[in-house]
Amino acid sequence: MKTRLPILFIMITLVIDSMGIGLIMPVMPDLIRQLRHTDLASAAMWGGVLATSFAVMQFLFSPTIGNLSDRFGRRRVLLVSLFFMSLDYLVMAIAGSIWILLAGRIVAGITAATQSTGTAFMADISTAKDKAKNFGLVSAAFGIGFVIGPLIGGVLSTLGPRAPFYAAAMLAAANFTFGYFVMPETVTDAIRRPFEWRRANPLGAFKHIARLPGLKALLTVHLLYSIAFFVYPAVWAYFTRERFGWDGLMVGYSLATFGISIAIVQGLLIRHIIARLGEERTLLLGLLINMLSFLGIALIPNGWIVLALTPVTALGAISGPALLSIMSRTAADNQQGELQGLLGSVGSIGTILSPILMTQTFSYFISARAPFYMPGAPFILSLGLIAVCVGIYLARTGQETTEHPLP
């Protein structure tokens, strides 16, 4: 019981962290329009700013908070983060201006950057044989958060655009109370180390790119793919409201369906697809499915058809694991840790760039300034980015074949 309750606390904390975007996504269009007294185009632009600020803070502070936990302890860092998270969501719930909401999202990004601390706690308490199982719980917690966040947010949207913020504040406060009583400290004087800013640098991995020959093209593909695929959380709430007239509840249901479908694809189907097709053909098939999905979403006028095609759309998620597997196979055994850190940084940059890029594109193409009306423009842009990914990958493959011809 002494072990299970802290693990439960960690899992709830990580679920709350991963719900940070999805929980409020269904209500953001209405809340921003309420605060700004503006149209959907302007609301989408502000939505991109808010989402990007959250992602930037998570990117910048994740290594910092992880290093702080090595110095001051996992318990203290996690409880302090949850305490300020609950206060922050309460402030956002009563925010009377967009600037207070923006400040709230900045603080929320910082307080939600505790994945490294939670994972470190799991490592602290795990024996060698239990580490893989406990790290799997960490991944499961994030998956659960991504799925139930939009669903809960959609249901709560029926109570008003501020209801999800109140719910998040209460959930964080309840988990803080739970953790206060059950969370032990695992950082002892034997493993405690001083805090050093150079270890907390989130850009540190990029200076080692040159040490990974042959991976630059694949890293470019990974970045472009991350930007393109993040179009769903970036503009879905705004796009479906403009295109299909969906409310927050329908947005939440559709995003939860998409999350469940991706979990099935990446958790169950991917291993069988790769075993049958191989990594390269799986990657190209996934990229092709993404391109067709983006085109369909941009052009299909009926929302129910788009919703019915969600399992097919989610099948495009086979690209991600296949690409990561190819890169892992390309790198040397002693470069795997360095590579994974770099991939995490590149993926984070994709989640930073995508919201601002996609919401600006959406806002422009539903405004009077656009040469033609096209709310699906962000998905056309994503299609173009995926097409560039295909071109880069095929050019790299052709270059390798030329440099290393078959005997």
Describe the structure in your own words.
The chain has 407 residues and is mostly helical. The protein has two domains: 202 residues, Up-down Bundle (Growth Hormone, Chain: A); 204 residues, MFS general substrate transporter like domains (Growth Hormone, Chain: A), CATH 1.20.1250.20. The chain is built from 17 helices and no strands. α1 packs antiparallel against α8, α3 packs parallel to α6 and α16 packs antiparallel against α17. It is globular. The termini are far apart. The C terminus is likely disordered.
Q: Secondary-structure blueprint of this entry?
A:
Blueprint: H1 4-22, H2 28-36, H3 40-72, H4 74-93, H5 98-111, H6 115-125, H7 131-156, H8 163-182, H9 216-229, H10 231-244, H11 248-277, H12 279-299, H13 303-308, H14 310-314, H15 319-330, H16 336-365, H17 377-403
List keywords for this structure.
17 helices, Growth Hormone, Chain: A, single chain, mainly alpha
Gross morphology is globular
Radius of gyration: 21 Å
> Uncertain segments of ≥5 residues (pLDDT<50)?
401-407
According to CATH, the fold-level topology of the largest domain is Growth Hormone, Chain: A
H-E string: HHHHHHHHHHHHHHHHH
For the record, give the distance between the C-alpha atoms at the N and C termini, rounded to a whole number: 61 Å
Oligomer: single chain
Structural class: mainly alpha
Helix count from the secondary structure assignment:
17
What CATH architecture of the largest domain would you give? Answer: Up-down Bundle
Main sheet makeup: none
Bin the helical content.
over 70%
Question: How many domains in all?
Answer: 2
Question: How many β strands by DSSP?
Answer: 0
Strand content: under 5%
